[in-house]
Design a protein that fits this description.
This protein has 250 residues and is mostly helical. It contains seven helices and six strands, in the order H-E-E-H-H-H-E-E-E-E-H-H-H. The protein starts with a helix and ends with a helix. The chain binds heme C (HEC). Heme C binds next to helix 5 and helix 6.
Length: 250
């Protein structure tokens, strides 16, 4: 996703007055990352995209830090002497890390299902009407890429990849890059209806998995999402079911 596309969606000072002020997470890029030709740095910082707070620059950064921080496995990328740049004691080869990156990069996007059902179509309208799509942007386009299959393609991920202040209820007390404790990157909603299949039949939504249903996840939206949540709460019970039917079709 080109930086320009994300900057076009950002509205850090809420100039349009809709209560929603998405902004990129400006991060320090690790020395092993390959910078995008179309990157738009600011004061030496770059726009992050991956992770709950968008604190990882690319899939290699995400993968190398997940090996290190989530699994305690040291790779060449994350374990170099800061002065000499010598590898200290890697436990996983570069090739293996790069293979995982390639696997992630070429994973197929989840295909929406039951898209012609009346309830799903009605729910899609409601999604836009109550303003969910202001953060969960239905479609973005990839930019240029050395891989033809990934270049200039529509991506219906339902995210703007930007940070939003979600209110005190979702404050985890941690900062990452320029992301504040209550700020989270809009999570993609593609594949939402399929996620219980890989989680023992249950939903574990929001950054810490606390929401056990789509309805519970919506109810926890605060901060910049308060207006949208209130509009959702004023829908009839039947309309709220249509919205959930739509979300489950993704
Ligand atoms: C102001 C931006 C914003 C708006 C508006 C918004 N969301 Fe979200 N949404 C987020 C963010 C950010 C999170 C992640 C919060 C967290 O993890 O604590 C989220 C999380 C979710 C999740 C959980 C996804 C997951 O994988 O954990 C669902 C489902 C969801 N939103 C649906 C909706 C629906 C439906 C609406 C409209 C009623 C809506 N959102 C409006 C920003 C927004």
């Amino acid at each position: 996703m080109p930086d320009d596309a994300l900057l076009a969606l950002a509205d850090p000072n809420d100039r349009d007055g809709d209560g929603i002020s998405g902004r990129p997470n400006w991060i320090t890029v690790p020395d092993y990352a390959t910078l995008r030709p179309d990157a738009r740095p600011r004061a030496g910082k770059y726009i992050g995209r991956f992770g709950k707070k968008a604190a990882a620059y690319d899939l290699l950064h995400q993968t190398a830090s997940a090996y290190n921080q989530d699994m305690g496995v040291i790779s060449f990328f994350e374990d170099r002497d800061p002065n000499t740049h010598n590898v200290l004691d890697p436990e996983v080869s570069n090739q293996k890390v790069q293979d995982v990156v390639a696997y992630l990069k070429f994973l197929k996007a989840p295909q929406p299902r039951e898209t012609e059902q009346a309830a799903v179509l009605a729910g899609e309208q409601l999604f836009v009407q109550v303003g969910c799509g202001k953060c969960h942007t239905p479609e973005l386009r990839t930019g240029d890429s050395p891989v033809a299959a990934l270049a200039n393609r529509p991506v219906r991920a339902y995210t703007d990849l930007l940070l939003h202040d979600m209110g005190p209820g979702l404050n985890d007390g941690y900062t990452e890059g320029s992301a504040q404790p209550a700020e989270w990157r809009t999570p993609p909603l593609w594949g939402l209806g399929l996620s219980p299949n890989s989680q023992g039949g249950s939903y574990f939504l929001l950054h810490d998995g606390r929401a056990r249903s789509i309805e519970a996840a919506i109810a926890q939206h605060g901060g910049e999402a308060t207006g949208s949540r209130d509009r959702h709460d004023r829908l009839s019970a039947a309309e709220q079911r249509q919205l959930v039917d739509f979300l489950k079709s993704l």
